[in-house]
Amino acid sequence: MLYVRVIYLTSPTTTINKRTTRLMMNSVYYSYPTTTATRSFRTSSSSSAAAQQQQQQQRRRQQLHKQSFSILTKSINTRLMIGRRRTSDFKNDSLSTIMTEATQNNNNSSNNIDGNARTKKTIMVTTPIYYVNDKPHIGHVYTSTVADIYARYKRLQNDDVFFLTGTDEHGLKVEQSAEKRKITPKALADENSAIFRDVMKENDISFDDFIRTTDERHTKQVQSFVEKLLKTGDVYLGKFEGWYDEGQEEYYTETKAKENNYESPISGKPMVRMEEENYYFKLSKYQDKVKQLLETNDSFLTPKERKNELLQRVNDGLNDVPISRTNFTWGIPMPGDEKHVIYVWIDALMNYITAIGMAEENNEKQKYWPASVHVMAKEISWFHAVIWPAVLMALDLPIPSRVHAHGFWIREGRKMSKSLGNFVDLTVLNKFSNHYGMDGFRYYLATEGPIGAQDANFASSRVQEVYGTDLVNTFGNSTSRTTAMCEKYFDGFIPEKSNDATKMFKGYNWKSICKEEAANAIRAYENLELNKATQAAMRIITKVDLFITETEPFRMAKDPNERENLGCVLYQCLEALRIAACILEPVLPNKVKEMHESLPLYKSETQPLTERVVWGGLQPGMKISKLALFPRVDELNENGENKETETAAAAEIIANKKSTEKKTKTKVEKVYSPETQALIDAQGQLIRSMKESGRTNEDLEVAEAVKKLKELKASSSD
User: Fold this and answer.
1) Angle of helix 530-551 versus helix 438-448 axis, rounded to 10
2) Same domain, 621 and 649
3) N or C: more exposed end of the chain, with fewer CB within 10 A?
């Protein structure tokens, strides 16, 4: 039996009851039986048991002392902080009770980067449900990918995540399309809904539920919600006279139609004059509440530019909106008046609460509401950030925490459309995804997509550039080089980290660097700033390249006296790359999983991300293997086809314009050893990174880096 003595002293400013103080001031002993994992504690004035094992268990005793002190201190502090409980609340608390509660709290939560407890949350992430009268295209895939990355990030935090997507299947356009094909609307909906579902799976969208508005669970609950609105008077029968956008199935007043030149603000097609009896939702009743929501809650609608756009419309005054139609039959019948069908937009919006059974009794999925974030394109932000919250207010249900309305994908400065022939449809998307790999194309969408207020231009040249620069030359190259050196110099085993790298290599406090960038990445993921999250990881990897250039592990490997330092360098590189890979996992799930099979990135699937990115996760002595994550590929044209083979003359001209890196590589391969060649390549990459950031040869650091490159090329030692 091993006993560890721990002394506790209370802060002079802390007020707790006498019994707790007495316990804290006593000498507390923890016993660690050698034959069982069960732990008990006792008070004693003797340390004879510990003395008996002093020589054999010295290191173990010190370790347990530190652990015990840390655990008990955190436990007591936890109790002191939770709810700022009154002194009397501690009357019947023993130290064991305090320990037990703290342990339970830790077990029910994951830790943040600083090791503090993080409460497990229920998270609901949604895409809009996609209209089956259209075929999947880049907009659908992009929105789903953004939502998927956020859902994966939250799962990595060990949150309880429910990720919803699906299809919107009612309305006039579906009815008309089915009639043209001489099939039923349901048959058309079944066919196209299956396509959307397959596309989600093919693009690795990790949804938990796929809802269809033709599902019985949906139709029954929609009728139940509308019936409730009828009873409260928030829905009434009225008559509409005005303009109708057939494409969006949206009504406009004379004033609004005139502002848009009587054309659809989305499609540009002429509006149609309509006169129709409809059931109306009293949107005007909730104008002040919706306005207050948009004005006071900065996190509800993002990016902030969307909020400004909608507030202007809200300030102009909200009119009641029709929620039924009589000019077609393909929809959910109005309760008590089946000549009306429920307007497709109201029908579609309610999918978010029908999927979790909010109109049902004892549906355990109700715990996910309100939704954490609705992800969508900006053209439907009005429905989600104005009409939808008002409907929820009328139903006395909580509103979503956030609506994120991203920009559009464009081509050559113009919005994509089939008529212009610049549409990135499913066929083109599949070609890019197959060519660059699922994760490679996901990375492009995540980093270059219109996540903010601005639209984003889709260009094949940019796909090639992002893939080649970030994934091949940076992440892939650094991982390959480092694991190759580990394999060559240490037989594939992670070397010991015995040296203090902070003292050895000034300017490279890797623990601090990785902690800061991991915090930046997590903050970015929380804010749906996916490009900033990936940039944090890439900054770590770029520093690894620079670190290799400056420490010259190839040179160290030639000197037996430098072996310990060499091991230290490689450990720092491997550990930094491990943390960077963990950061990138929501964006590159398949490649990171592949990397994990060769280089252990985390202890278990349940280890939260905030723990995975803590420095020191790699254990020396673990066997790893060389990694080659991202192959080099040729650029595709705008239609996703391989570019035509250049003529001999054209090829010669292009070859003369190749980058200095490639020309240099061709020359030195005949002269230098692989080690020196690797150093030259790394130095060249460093110079290019500096210049890409806007720095010039006039910059002192750039000049020194160029000088170093010249010295390497001029070397004759190899």
Assistant:
1) 110
2) no
3) N
Over residues 426-445, the mean pLDDT reads: 96
Rounded CA-CA distance 446/534 in Å is: 9
Tokens of 408: 């559009």
What DSSP assignment string belongs to 25-56?
A: HSEEEEEE-SS-S--EEEE-S--HHHHHTTTT
Q: Looking at the structure, do residues 497 and 629 belong to the same domain, yes or no?
A: yes
Can you give the pTM of this predicted structure?
Answer: 0.74
Dihedral of alpha carbons 239, 245, 249, 250, sign: negative
DSSP string, 466-478: HIIIIIIIIIIHH
Residue 472 falls inside a structural domain = yes
What tokens appear for 67 in the block? 């652990």
Query: What are φ and ψ of residue 71, in 5° steps?
Result: -65, -45
Average pLDDT, the chain: 81
Q: Determine the 3-state secondary structure of 406 from DSSP.
A: strand
Whether a cis peptide bond, with omega within 30° of 0, leads into 370 is: yes
Q: Would you give the distance in Å from CA 113 to the centre of its chain? A: 17
Beta strands 373-377; 122-126: pairing state: parallel
Residue 381 · residue 405 · CB < 8 Å:
yes
Same domain, 550 and 652: no
Coil vs helix vs strand at 279: strand
Q: Domain check: are 481 and 587 in the same one?
A: yes
* Single-letter code of the amino acid located at 398: P
Q: Report the pLDDT value the prediction gives residue 663, as an integer from 0 to 100.
A: 47
Q: How many domains does the chain contain in total?
A: 3
SS3 of residue 145 by DSSP: helix
Domain that holds residue 683: 645-718
Q: The CATH number of the domain where 523 resides is what?
A: 1.10.730.10
Whether a cis peptide bond, with omega within 30° of 0, leads into 586 is: no
Nearest-10 Cα torsion for 517, 519, 522, 523: -110
Could you give the CA distance from residue 122 to residue 398 in angstroms, rounded to a whole number? 15
The answer to whether residues 611 and 507 belong to one domain is yes
Angle between helices 477-490 and 674-692 in degrees, nearest 10 = 150
542 with 466: CB under 8 angstroms? no
532 and 599 share a domain?
Answer: yes
User: 371-409: per-residue pLDDT in tens?
Assistant: 999 999 999 999 999 999 999 999 999 999 999 999 999
Which of 78, 107, 136 is where one domain is finished? 107
- Contact between residue 130 and residue 192 where contact means Cβ atoms under 8 Å apart: no
Three-state secondary-structure class, residue 4: strand
Confidence of residue 415 (pLDDT cuts 50, 70, 90): confident
Residue 187, C-beta contacts closer than 8 angstroms, at least 6 positions apart: 178
